[in-house]
Write a structure and sequence with these properties.
Layout: E1 2-5, H1 29-37, E2 41-47, E3 52-61, E4 66-74, H2 83-94, E5 100-102, H3 110-114, H4 132-140
Parallel strand pairs: 4-5
Antiparallel strand pairs: 1-2, 2-3, 3-4
The structure holds coenzyme A.
Length: 142
């Protein structure tokens, strides 16, 4: 059974150490805990049978006008079961009074976020872990 919680009660760094799948520099469990502790709001999905964190979403915010959703991730074995949808729905409910909610994502993910009423925009980013060659590639991309 999947439960949802918006606190870190019963959550150890070890339970958060399997995220950032495919990242060149995945965050450790300790770093993940720090991220959540310093987030404005976050939601975790917990597999109560296995006592595993199956997914999470977090937001950063000034609490008045702007919020940013930096991470949404469901572990591969739990994907396509509606967990991501539930996480984002619950987070957006928590952010209901914030008028500007932003996130960045790859183009292929845009239809997913459009389901929640979000629309395409433009943005600029720093990604300090990229190599000079990768930065050149992204700069030349239209
Ligand atoms: C994206 C993600 C959070 C979705 O969570 P989930 O629990 O698997 O998603 P849900 O079960 O709520 O929804 C499944 C739907 O999302 C679609 N979807 C999932 N990943 C997708 C992707 N990378 N691109 C486009 N659509 C995707 C599925 O095709 C499915 O569509 P359907 O309802 O038409 O069948 C999850 O796949 C994930 O963690 N991916 C890796 C991390 C990531 O890309 N995070 C988003 C960063 S912007």
């Amino acid at each position: 059974m999947i439960n949802y919680q918006s606190d870190l009660f019963g959550i150890t760094p070890d339970m958060l150490s399997h995220f950032c799948v495919g990242w060149s520099c995945p965050l450790s469990g300790e770093e993940m805990k720090h991220v959540l502790e310093h987030s404005y709001r976050f939601i975790l999905s917990l597999d109560t049978k296995k006592n595993r964190v199956a997914g999470f979403v977090n937001s950063l915010s000034d609490g008045v006008h702007f919020a940013f959703i930096p991470m949404l991730e469901v572990l591969p074995e739990y994907q396509n079961q509606g967990i991501g949808t539930e996480l984002l729905t619950k987070l957006l409910a928590e952010l209901k009074d914030i008028p500007c909610i932003d996130l960045t994502c790859d183009a292929e993910m845009q239809p997913y976020y459009a389901r929640f009423g979000m629309f395409k925009s433009h943005g600029m980013v720093f990604r300090k872990y990229l190599s000079p060659e990768q930065i050149k590639f992204y700069r030349n991309r239209t």
